[in-house]
Structure formats: C-alpha cells, structure tokens
Amino acid sequence: MSDALSAIERFSRYQSDDAQSVEPVHCPVRDVLDCIGDKWSILMIMTLATRPQRFGELRRAIRDISKRMLTQTLRDLERDGLITRHVFPTKPPSVEYCLSPLGRSLLDPMASLIDWADRRYSDIHAARVRFDGAPL
Amino acid sequence: MSDALSAIERFSRYQSDDAQSVEPVHCPVRDVLDCIGDKWSILMIMTLATRPQRFGELRRAIRDISKRMLTQTLRDLERDGLITRHVFPTKPPSVEYCLSPLGRSLLDPMASLIDWADRRYSDIHAARVRFDGAPL
DNA sequence: GGCCGGAGGTCTCTATGTGAGACCTACCCT
DNA sequence: AGGGTAGGTCTCACATAGAGACCTCCGGCC
In terms of DSSP H, where are the helices of chain A? Predict the structure, then answer.
C-alpha cells in the first residue's frame, strides 16, 4: 500500500495548480490510458506475452474481435512502440507480431492488475448482483 | 518479471482448451477490463484515491468529462462495489463519493501501472513520432 | 413576491468507435 | 478454371460518448 500512496502523490502532482484539474496534456497517466485504455489493447498484449503470433493466430485467440479492430489495434500498438511487425516473404506473405522490449516492460505492471482481477472479480460480481437486486 | 510470468501463465489458462481462445465468459481479465477498461474509470479511482469528493469537485478535477459520463461512470463503479455514494440532507443535497475497501485494494496494482506510465511515456511518445514520420 | 444561483442530476442531438461482412491480391493445388 | 489461404481494406449499420439545454429544490437578495 505504500507504493500506492507514492503513486497517488505523483498522480496528484499532475493536477494543474491553478485549477486542481487533471489536464490531458500534462498527465502521462492520461496519455498512457489513451494508448492501452481501449477495448482490445491489454488483451492483445497479454496474448502476445506467451509468444510472437501471426495475424490469424491472434484472431483465433481473441475470437470476438473483428478483423478491422484487430488490424487497428495492432497498428496503434506498433505506432506506440509496444509491438513490432515482421513480414515474411512467403507466398502468401505471413506477418508476425511480437512484443518489443517496451511492450515487455509493461507485463510486470499488468501482471499485478491481472492478479487483482483474479482474486477480486468474485467480489465485483457479488456487488453487482446486490446492486441490481436492490430496490430504488 | 517473474511475477509477470506467473500471471501470464494464469491468463493463458483461461484460454479454452478446444479453441485456444480467450472466451469473454470464462476470463476474469475480460470481466475486470469491462469494468475499469473504459475511458474514465481508472482516472476516477485515482482522483478519489486522495480523498472522498463530491460530484462538483470531481467535475472540476477531471475537466473534460461531461456531466453525463461523470454520472454514468460513478454509477457503474458503484454498481461494481468499487466506490460508495453518500447523500447528505443539506439544502440543496450534497453527494459524496468515496472508495470502498474493494476500490482501495485496486490502488496497489494501479500504482505500478502509473509508475510504468511515468517512466515510459516518453518512450511511447518518441516511438509515435518516429512511426508518424516514417515513409510508407 | 419574484428572480438569481448552486448542487446534482436527466434529456436530446450529434460525433466518434465498434462490428459484420463483402471484397481484394497474389499465389498454390487440383 | 476453380477453390483455398493469408492479411488485409472498404462500406454500412449500430452502440457509445460528448455538448449543452433543461429540471428541481431550496435559500438569499432586493
């Protein structure tokens, strides 16, 4: 919890002094959330964590992603330097995606999130059932 | 990094054996990402981490959130048991939001993510500039 | 009494994000 | 010649997000 406290302090510092607000421009957290805060990015990184994979493999691994979103998510992650893309001149050409060192460095922080998800998702589920069943 | 490896292993186990796919139904990670993986939830939790805050305070803290999304994000987080909502019978009534124990337990994992964001967002920025400047 | 303002919302309309699925190119196999 | 495969792009339809008007309840001011 001491780690958490220092991180919160750091986060607070990004609040601009005049308005006490989290400005998108000056807040790395906002910046990073814009990168990996979309629907598929984290899932993609986790899936690529086990091994480099090709376009079709990724589609089969995350079955409810559409081709369009798969392409777009991969492009965005490549643009942000989290994954790399290799084209092999086979016929037809095959393309392999793999985590860059920067992408791999994200695994450790994400691991603790997954850990939390694992331990606490039943609590969340219970809270949800309770909330939905409560009278208004 | 060893933590990351075990989390990845655990994540892999949620891939269904027959199809090697990350089924939404059986994957807590998917579940949790659906809760806090939206545009504002993590920011909201971080903002509430410093202290309980009222509707108007939160709006001023996260200035580019709309009233509608603020209301909805708060409702969703309340539904999932991550925050609690207290109405004080002042005139006009004031409403205070604060993290629940479950919500506070999320701070530690989120802290490591913020840590990463802090250290690495310049790398991401650099990668992006490089990508955008590259010829096709 | 009538008007203004604040707190915490809801409602409506438009802009953006997401998904489904058709299509494309180049090649191989039969 | 027809069909299959890999990795996409394109178009259309729909779901979600944002902007901003509006609402209620009250208290204070003149």
Answer: 2-13, 28-36, 41-50, 55-61, 67-79, 101-105, 107-133
